[in-house]
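Put briefly, the fold is written as integer tokens. The lines below illustrate.
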Amino acid sequence: MTTLRPTVTALDGSSRLGARVLCLPIGPEGRKHFAMRLAPRTTRKTHDSNRDPHSKSIVRLLSQPLALLLFAGCLALNGCSASTEPDDSAPVANASNEATESQPVEIDFETASYDATSDELLASRLPSEETREGWVRLFDGHTLFGWESTGKANFRVEEGAIVVDQGKPALLCSSSTWGDFELTLEFKATKTTNSGVFVRTPLEPENPELDCYEINIAPLDNPFPTGSLVGRQKADAVEPVDAWREMRIIADGKDVRVEIDGETVCRYQDPVDLPARRVGLQHRKGRVAFRAIKIRPLGLEPLLDEGLTQWTRYPEMPGKFEMSDDQTLHVTGGSAQLETEQSYGDFTLLAEYKIDQPGMNSGLFFRCIPGDKMMGYECQINNDFKDDSRLMPEDCGTGGIFRRQDARLVAGENGSWATVLLQAHGTKISAWVNGIGVSDWEDTREEHENPRKGRRTEPGTIMIQAHDPKTDLLYRNLKIASP
């Protein structure tokens, strides 16, 4: 059987299988475009009530139009479970006539665009009691920022949820990577829906019984009904209902636990420890919707203590780094750095910061050349924005990757504590501020020892920056998890 996959022409002109999210600032308004292959057109356009209705300062998700000629009965998608029943009767998007064995069906995947105002995104921020524990939203409720797909299914955003109900078996995957984590979401499925949540999954899994965990959403007569780990362990019976239900997945080392509506329905101890990979939402058969998708990393270890024993100081530099009795790090003065003793390659870093005055600037540098002066990638710490629009950072914006990708939203507030979650995995770098994803960047440059000049995936140190003589800000709750 021949498997056909679409070839996508990216914004940089290259062609590739599947889809990747790309972000480019366009125009003086700083509008961001997020390109991704998606399903039939669904457009949502709203405007900030406090701004000119003709303003173009919006966050937009755009997918590139695709059109492929598919022959019914001869197309298969790698990465969907062989353990669940095939969907030979699934409806096909934009098919004008029902397929027969001799009749080709054309599926036209058009551009889907989603707009969200700054007010809408800011309203999606998480409360501080959650963000200080590392919780972030994988789905902001308005756009598909931070998601990638290689399949042909009509994943789309409707009424604050990710919805899919047509197309061939496919996955919509997070662009970020998660190893040990706690994931919560709400799902709503029909009684005949066959779907699932994939964790620690590659973008295109070959066998969910081996290379990822598929938590099934399926009827009771399925060999692996809702809550089961497909091919591994059957869950306790979960009666299907036509209502929103909560799913919680905890993956900690080799232990995987699944809860439905607060009840543990499946617990599995794997003989092997799967590596950190993506989170995926599956379309296989029937309609399913997902919302309130949140995740937090497990295994975070503190980096700050009273004596800064895990850090190297540079007393010859003018800036100062001083710990207070309440475990808060006060950063003041001119250009200086505080550097970890240990090097980190792939990691997830949590930090709380507080900036009281406009114009204050700091940064979290990572994969730095040890001992050199801040020669690494920089996650910017700066809450300033232009033209009264939080969609237009003044200086990259907190969570932006300095000189690589501006934050799509300035989500921190001067005078208040805010939280940054920074993740680096291979060539992918992502950041969330107060629970909202603000950057999602892949380094496609040539390899180089110095991240300022090229791609570096080798481990390097982490540095906290004192930027200039006016620097005066606070850090606390600095923690890290690394494989």
Remarks:
- Residues 1-111 have pLDDT under 50 and may be disordered.
- The first strand starts at residue 7 and ends at 9.
